[in-house]
């Protein structure tokens, strides 16, 4: 076998393995999506960190979010955001201010807590990455590369619990070197939430300034 055919053979094998890995990654992501959609609601406690060595930035914070379909109640960095299906209510206790805005569900660029669990369904190239043992849990990583050249993210690593098919963490690396990590500390499903958990009750904030953008 001459060198040309050796190189050709190796390339064919390489492309075949890449295709198999991409298919395997896509199948696991499909399982994650199906699992998420099967829950009546999800309650997550998470840790968020941001690191940029060039700018000497290193931040860490915690938060929690309750999800039910597209509805959400998010508490993060001292701010509460509630989406009741029609409007988004942003509550800032430090400023005693509430912003009420209309949510456009047709806006593909709109990022919501509920989309954070399903964002990977389109717009990315997939590849099978490393398997890690995290405190006895097997976490399989899938690498996502944005298809759009305009995307400021270089790559995303999505860690998935092999047994539960739930997301464990998300590691996002920007083209500017910024690295953000979201780690799920607690993932609870089908919780007994009150019927008003995703509703905004203005009477709870009698002295707040209301900024209406709806």
Describe what this molecule looks like in 3D.
This protein is α+β, with helices and mostly antiparallel strands. Helix content is 17%, strand content 46%. The chain contains 1 helix and 12 strands, in the order αββββββββββββ. Strand 4 and strand 5 form a beta hairpin.
Task: Give the gist of this structure.
With 214 residues, the chain is of the alpha+beta class. Helix content is 17%, strand content 46%.
Which class in CATH terms? Mainly Beta
Instruction: State which percent range the strand residues make up.
Output: over 45%
Classified in CATH, the superfamily is Lipoprotein localisation LolA/LolB/LppX
* Assembly category: single chain
- Model regions low in confidence, pLDDT < 50 over at least 5 residues: 5-19
Beta strands, count: 12
Properties at a glance:
single chain; 214 residues; alpha+beta; outer membrane lipoprotein receptor (LolB), chain A; twelve-stranded mixed β-sheet; 1 helix
Secondary structure layout:
Blueprint: H1 3-38, E1 42-52, E2 57-68, E3 71-76, E4 79-83, E5 87-92, E6 97-102, E7 124-134, E8 137-146, E9 153-161, E10 167-174, E11 179-189, E12 209-212
Parallel strand pairs: 6-12
Antiparallel strand pairs: 1-2, 1-11, 2-3, 3-4, 4-5, 5-6, 7-8, 8-9, 9-10, 10-11
